[in-house]
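Thread: "does anyone have the structure for this chain?"

Original post by V.I.:
We have the sequence but no experimental structure in hand. Need at least a predicted one for the grant figures.
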Amino acid sequence: MGRFAFLLHPPSVDYFQLKFPWMRRLPDGWVEGAFRHVPPWVGARITGIVSPTGATAEGHFIILPWTPRLLLETPWPVTLGRLLAAGRLAEHAGAEIFGLGAYTKIAGDRGVTLNERLRMPVTTGNSYTAATAVEGALLAAARMGMEPGATVVTIVGATGSIGAACARVLAGQVGSLCLVARERARLDALREELAAGGTLVTVEPDLQRAVRQAGIVLCVSSAIEGILSPADFASGAVVCDVARPRNVSASLAGVRDDVLVIDGGVIAVPGEHADFGMHFGFPPRTAEACIAETIILALEHRWEAFTLGRDISAERVREIAVLGRKHGFRLAGFRRFERAIPDEEIDAIAARARRTA
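Reply from O.Q.:
Generated one for you, tokens below.
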């Protein structure tokens, strides 16, 4: 049996206020400050994961009660100390590989130093996140009647590890790529890399203009708050929001009934009795792709730091996708803001988009 652990943290102060309603009367900064001093803990045991190959895995969620703001604004040596404490809890629980969730893999050097300091390997899960984001976006585009080879794809947050990996995988599959990010030097380097392979690539400094021209928008920015609003998208666009916290305003679904918004990286895990031991925002037997990558590696007994740092190759993304299929992992249908999207609703969105074209 493969044994793993995965590190979770709350996506915002709202998480604390839902669990402890009296905290709604306190300023957000006070709430964050109070939980800054709370050490990580073992939150739940994960059981019942069974691959079609017969391989099995068990694990634990480790909880670090820090918001994205705390993880990004706290001095790195202090943050590293908390991540190490969480990792040692995972080791004590018997884990043989440790996965990093959300902003714990963005803080500092994206798992590199943590991997050096722990006895077990660390993975960010970003390879499988990129693989399933691309898969989901292309499937959704097909449902909307798009031909990938004639489609503009805009990647918001293109210089991050997931964004750049998505760009590398999509290169050659779509009509053109439009890259958006804050770091111009890295954007230009990525554009040159992709253009050298024959892909038509542009860099657009205006976020709204970049999004408005796209048939497919992949949102993978590490912005702490939403950066895109309903008016930003073209009619008929497919928007795959992989970011947590989300890049896209939750109001989009209610305002734009001609745009298909899907959650990125929601994965069905194998095992009839798979149980994550706690509610963390997903339906039973489903999880984010970064969690799924950690489990896949445990099922494979691949005790290695599969995904670390900024740079992820297209080959690594394709490899973890193959391993995922081998062990029965799959996209959990199309979902939007944690809700399944019925087929008839997708058909209606596509029909409205055609009428407004």
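V.I.: this helps a lot. The chain has 13 helices and 16 strands.
O.Q.: and The longest strand covers residues 41-50.
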